Amino acid sequence: QKEVEQNSGPLSVPEGAIASLNCTYSDRGSQSFFWYRQYSGKSPELIMSIYSNGDKEDGRFTAQLNKASQYVSLLIRDSQPSDSATYLCAVNPMKNQGGKLIFGQGTELSVKP
Amino acid sequence: GAVVSQHPSRVICKSGTSVKIECRSLDFQATTMFWYRQFPKKSLMLMATSNEGSKATYEQGVEKDKFLINHASLTLSTLTVTSAHPEDSSFYICSAIAGEETQYFGPGTRLLVL
Fold first, then answer.
1. How many other C-beta atoms can be found within 10 angstroms of the C-beta atom of residue B73?
2. Local confidence band at A26 (pLDDT 50, 70, 90 cut-offs)
C-alpha cells in the first residue's frame, strides 16, 4: 500500500460544478496535511493546509480531514477552467521530522467550459 | 506567502559538464530546504533534504557524489549536477520551509543535457 494515495484521474467536471479530490494516507500518526496545485510545466503552489479534523474553508476551496478514516479531501466550488491542473496531496507523517512530506501521485483535474 | 526563487529557470548543457542550481528563500530564513526532481507526467521525487550548516540527507538511490548539495546560509541552497548526462535531464524543484513546517516551492529549473 502506498503511503499517500490519490486517484490519478483525469477527473473531468463542467464549469461551475463542484470538484471533489480525495486522498488517503497510511500513517495514522500523521499530523499535517497539504494540498498543492501544479499547472503543467510549473512547480507546485500551496492551496491549503489542514491540521485538525473537520473542514477548513478558503474562498472556493474547502479541505476536509478525517483522521479516524485517514482521509483528506479538497472540494473546489464553482469550478473554473483555470482550476484545470494536477492537485497533489501531501502528508507530514510525523511531527518534528523537519517538515519532510510524502506526496501522492496527484489527481489531474479538467474543468470543461 | 513565502517566496522561493530558483536560478536558472532553464539550462542546456553538454554531456560531461556540471550545472549548479541555486535556491533562495527571499523573505524568510529557511533552516531546511528540499530538492526534488520530476519527470513528465510523474509526481515529485524527493532527492535530498538540505539543512543549513550540515551535510545534506539523501534519499535512497540518489547518488550524493552526483548531486552535490550545499546549504551555506539560511537563505541559499545549491544543487550541483556533476558530470551531467542526458538521463539527468529533468525538472528540478526546490522547496523551503516557512512557519509551521509548510513547504513553499521554487519555480523550478528545467535541465536539458545534450
1. 13
2. very high
